[in-house]
């Protein structure tokens, strides 16, 4: 595995102190699944936190076993000699609270009942995740991150960090993100949630007790989401109107290649993700609005920040369009904060932030090299 962090082992960290969530619910204790790459330096100034997007998790780079077919979700970005260079930085990532990849979430056993939390698991917001991430940093003795980086929902976490803990963020990298969702984006999320909630196997969120999974709802939610993550041009270039059999069948089975692709992605997702977690993650997206507590002024919210910012967008991303990133840039400039902005030409839509695109990689590498020089 050239330029790979190699075989990595996730670690589950237990937090016994209760956390008071934004919803008012108090979670008496919880666990976070964490992976780290690279070495923390003596003064602990080279730490980078990577925040995951909606369906992400802690497994960012490397493999858990030699036999794994795929590496972590951002393996092209993180590793020795890569833009987020693990020869220079100590990189940490975690599965957010409410997740379904090892951290405490709806499918976890509630120790008070001995049954899965299910529908009783509380709504969590971006600020709650930031609180748990700050506690994790405290556990490792990290007082300030060299950078906090995230794409999409991860970018929202980086923004929240810079507002809530300004002294703890040296740089915030906000990629393919937005200061809040548009009505159209909230609508997409609600359609996805309705697909899950109305699945006969959902059982009000307590499907674990029935030994079933609302696969149909999850499948539809993922198919809808996947369409919005791609661009029309990118989808057209990859699939066009290609037919699986080469001719029309005049029925409702899979005929076009794009139908086959979406159903495959939906089916695959329904076997690896939790329906309640999907509901929670999309709600966290909907609720995110840092300007809300600053009279509706994003600039006033960002005035709390001390970090320097890199904001990146992609031309074909229509779900979190470049105009949304420029809103963040304008607010930062209005707040007299330091910000660099890159708008990358790409046909990959919202998913471009996960792709290995040369100009994008170059921007990230240059910015992170400057951070490495600052802390050296």
TrEMBL record:
Residues 46-354 form the AB hydrolase-1 domain. Its EC number is 2.3.1.46. GO terms for biological process: homoserine metabolic process; methionine biosynthetic process. Pfam families: Abhydrolase_1. GO terms for molecular function: homoserine O-acetyltransferase activity; homoserine O-succinyltransferase activity. It is found in: Cytoplasm. It comes from the Bacteria. The keyword DNA-binding does not apply. Keywords: Acyltransferase, Amino-acid biosynthesis, Cytoplasm, Methionine biosynthesis, Transferase. Belongs to the AB hydrolase superfamily. MetX family. NCBIfam families: homoserO_Ac_trn, PRK00175.1. This is Homoserine O-succinyltransferase.
């Amino acid at each position: 595995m050239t330029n790979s962090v190699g075989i990595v082992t996730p670690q589950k960290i237990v937090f016994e102190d209760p956390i008071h969530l934004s919803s008012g619910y108090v979670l008496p204790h919880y666990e976070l699944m964490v992976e780290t790459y690279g070495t923390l330096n003596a003064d602990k100034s080279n730490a980078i936190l990577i925040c995951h997007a909606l369906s992400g998790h802690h497994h960012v780079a490397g493999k858990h076993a030699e036999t794994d077919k795929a590496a972590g979700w951002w393996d092209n970005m993180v590793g020795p000699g890569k833009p987020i260079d693990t020869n220079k930085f100590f990189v940490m990532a975690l599965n957010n609270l409410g997740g379904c990849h090892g951290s405490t979430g709806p499918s976890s056993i509630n120790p008070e009942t001995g049954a899965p939390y299910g529908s009783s698991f509380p709504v969590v917001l971006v600020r709650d995740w930031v609180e748990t991430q700050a506690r994790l940093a405290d556990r490792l003795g990290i007082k300030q991150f060299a950078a906090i980086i995230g794409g999409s929902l991860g970018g929202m976490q980086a923004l929240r960090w810079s507002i809530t803990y300004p002294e703890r963020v040296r740089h915030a990298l906000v990629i393919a993100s937005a200061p809040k969702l548009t009505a159209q984006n909230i609508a997409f999320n609600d359609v996805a949630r309705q697909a899950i909630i109305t699945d006969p196997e959902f059982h009000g969120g307590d499907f674990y007790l029935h030994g079933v999974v609302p696969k149909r709802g999850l499948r539809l939610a993922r198919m809808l989401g996947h369409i919005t993550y791609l661009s029309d041009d990118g989808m057209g270039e990859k699939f066009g109107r290609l037919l699986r059999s080469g001719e029309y069948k005049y029925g409702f089975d899979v005929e076009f290649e794009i139908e086959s692709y979406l159903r495959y992605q939906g089916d695959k997702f329904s076997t690896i993700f939790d329906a309640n977690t999907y509901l929670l993650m999309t709600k966290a997206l909907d609720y995110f609005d840092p300007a809300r507590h600053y009279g509706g002024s994003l600039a006033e919210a960002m005035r709390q920040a001390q970090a320097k910012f890199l904001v990146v967008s992609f031309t074909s991303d229509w779900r979190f369009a470049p105009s949304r990133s420029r809103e963040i840039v304008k607010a930062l400039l209005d707040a007299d904060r330091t910000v660099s902005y890159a708008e990358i030409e790409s046909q990959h839509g919202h998913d471009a932030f996960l792709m290995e695109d040369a100009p994008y990689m170059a921007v990230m590498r240059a910015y992170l090299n400057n951070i490495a020089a600052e802390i050296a």
